[in-house]
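Request:
You are asked to prepare a plain-text protein record giving the amino acid sequence and the backbone structure tokens, at your earliest convenience.
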Amino acid sequence: MMGDKQLLFSDSGEAFIMYGQHGRSWIALFDPVGPPREWPELVWRFIEMAHARGARAAFYQVRTQALPLYLDAGLRVYKLGEEAHVPLAEFSLKGPRRANLRHGLNRAEREGLTFEVIARDEVPRWLPALRVVSDAWLAEHDTQEKCFSLGAFDETYLARQSVAVVKRGAQLLAFASLLCPPTRREATLDLMRHLPDAPNGTMDFLFVRLMLHFQ
């Protein structure tokens, strides 16, 4: 939806790799999309295309079960970070292990923080307030929009998603855009921003309330 990647399709058209180019690097985002039987041919073709143009190929944020495919293609594995998955059917705030989350939720609510999910068709009228938060966050971190593996603050892009917000009274403190496929199997946070002077624990409050919302 950002339009910042190229697509390489398999011969059958049933699978594709999405990728970007930066300097001499061709970087695919995630594993190929489509039936796994199509993946080996696509991976090899992507690598060969990059090499033929004097570039190097890389795959970013691949899944563990797909690592043999990339090793067979002569690539090396580097761990750059971790990703958290929360199985919502089992999630609960009860018990000593969740005490910090429970206390943080209660403290945020005592301080007047509220949570709301803005439906996609309502997002356009929220865009000016969302931009204020986004611009303040970018200025605080002295950075620019990232893109590629994350969405950027693009009004057309944001208006195609629902957005979770945290407010105190009428003031918008934080937001996160939500990728929610119609299969209802998984929901993913994408663009996350908060005001520099938002209370401590604001984003934790947002995350916990989102888990409960999707549960």
User: Anything to note?
Assistant: The chain has a mean pLDDT of 93.
